[in-house]
UniProtKB/TrEMBL annotation:
Protein name: Putative DNA modification/repair radical SAM protein
The organism of origin for this protein: Novispirillum itersonii
Family annotation (Gene3D superfamilies): Aldolase class I, Photosystem II 12 kDa extrinsic protein
Positions of the Elp3/MiaA/NifB-like radical SAM core domain: 60-287
Highest taxon of source: Bacteria
KW Glycosyltransferase (keyword) present: no
Cofactor(s) named in the record: [4Fe-4S] cluster
One MF term in the entry's GO annotations: metal ion binding
């Protein structure tokens, strides 16, 4: 491997990390203080990405790979063993220095570190853990740390990582066992889920110890997450929703990230020739929210998919699709309905529902009251009853989907 300076390594390994969907890239305006006016710069900010904390704060993370070299040859991965990409590698000390330098310049508030597998899973996990250990113990770093752990690594090494990281994650990679067997034959769903189960137990035990003993060390206090690639195999949206629900139930994940498959150079013939619509990824995130925040069951979300293809509609969101399929559940009286039915009204989110529950304790709500809690009443009108609104004929219309669906949008001829 040719000798590269830190800036070159950062450029390569930050770009290689962009395929991990756990935090989205920054879109900030380029600014510089080279002219002598002002302090700081946004140019040359390779690897700086934005993420969001549970309380809604936006924080900047240094998002990089330890190395983009890998002993595995997963068909969908740009960093696979047979890929003809430029390789680079940081040492643990270099990542520590880079993180501290960026932090002292107020560029970042934390680190997101992943890696290709080099030498062995245990060796790679040791290097990743050493970065976090050095930051915490040698430099007393108090910023946020998210580590991608290696499923095949020794359990003790993974446990050490949880002692230093705020959040850990293990990627399930693909939605189905068959897809993983075809596209990543060197990986095992059983080993991946065993590692996730071990991590779940360790997080649970750590939280219990913190409740019992004030000075017990925190273990991955922000929990664990995972990611699956969408569109690389033949899994339908119904398959993905079912798998996601099982992962949430079994491992108490904080969240699942969905990443639309992106064609890569010199791709294998077993991969699809083009990427899936990005709207499909968006619809899966919406369905994920229905499971996590709207009290929908996996079966209810699956009912919103096409019976033949198992795919969610791309032109309307999953909750609206479900409501149109089950019109017998509507309209819902906002002045008397329980919370779980209010959450099923298209266009109403958890905050709006909570506001309705509080307000109706004091008076009966009218349509204009509901209008203050949402962006548009157009989607809501056919599905709710208010003190001055009873949409009997509207709810039964044959062309209801056309009335409530977003209008078609003209595509840009020169869009990328």
């Amino acid at each position: 491997m040719a000798q590269l300076d830190t800036a070159q390594k950062l450029s390569i390994l930050a770009d290689a990390a962009k395929y991990d969907a756990s935090c989205s890239s920054s879109g900030g305006k380029r600014r510089s203080s080279l002219g002598g006016k002002g302090v700081g710069s946004t140019t040359g900010g390779s690897g700086i990405c934005h993420a969001y904390t549970p309380d809604g704060r936006c924080i900047s993370l240094l998002k990089i790979l330890l190395t983009n070299s890998c002993i595995f040859d997963c068909h969908y991965c740009i960093n696979r063993r047979s890929s003809n990409v430029r390789r680079a590698r940081f040492t643990a000390a270099e990542v520590v220095t880079l993180t501290l330098d960026f932090y002292r310049r107020n560029y970042i508030e934390g680190l997101f570190l992943s890696s290709g597998i080099i030498h062995s899973p245990d060796y790679t996990m040791e290097q990743i853990t050493e970065v976090a250990r050095s930051l915490r113990e040698d430099h007393h770093f108090r910023g946020y740390i998210h580590l991608k752990t290696i499923p095949d690594a020794d359990a003790d090494l993974v446990t050490r990582a949880g002692l230093y990281a705020d959040r850990v994650s293990i990627n399930v990679e693909l939605p189905t066992r068959s897809g993983l067997h075809v596209l990543a034959p060197e990986k095992s769903e059983t080993r991946i889920e065993t590692a996730m189960g071990f991590m779940h137990s360790a997080i649970t035990d750590g939280a219990d110890a913190r409740r019992r003993y004030r000075h017990a060390p925190a273990f991955a206090p922000a929990g664990q997450s995972t990611q699956m690639i969408v569109g690389a195999d033949t899994a339908s949206d119904r398959d993905i929703v079912s798998r996601a629900a099982g992962l949430y139930r079994r491992f108490d994940l904080r969240r699942i990230y969905y990443s639309a498959f992106s064609p890569i150079p010199d791709a294998s013939a077993v991969l699809p020739p083009s990427r899936p619509p990005l709207m499909r990824e968006h619809r899966l995130y919406q369905s994920d929210w229905l499971l996590r925040f709207y009290a929908f069951t996996p079966e209810e979300v699956a009912a919103a998919t096409d019976p033949t293809t198992g795919m969610l509609p791309l032109d309307i969101d999953p909750k609206l699709a479900w409501a149109l399929k089950f019109r017998g559940q509507f309209p819902v009286d906002v002045n008397t309905a329980p919370k779980e039915m209010l959450l099923r009204i298209p266009g109403l989110g958890p905050r709006a529902v909570q506001a309705i529950l509080q307000a109706r304790r004091w008076r009966r709500l009218r349509l204009e009251d509901i209008g203050r809690l949402t962006v548009s009443l157009k989607k809501l009108r056919p599905f709710l009853i208010a003190d001055d609104w009873h949409p009997v004929a509207l709810t039964d219309r044959q062309d209801l989907r056309a009335l409530v669906a977003p209008p078609p949008r003209q595509l840009d001829l020169f869009a990328g």
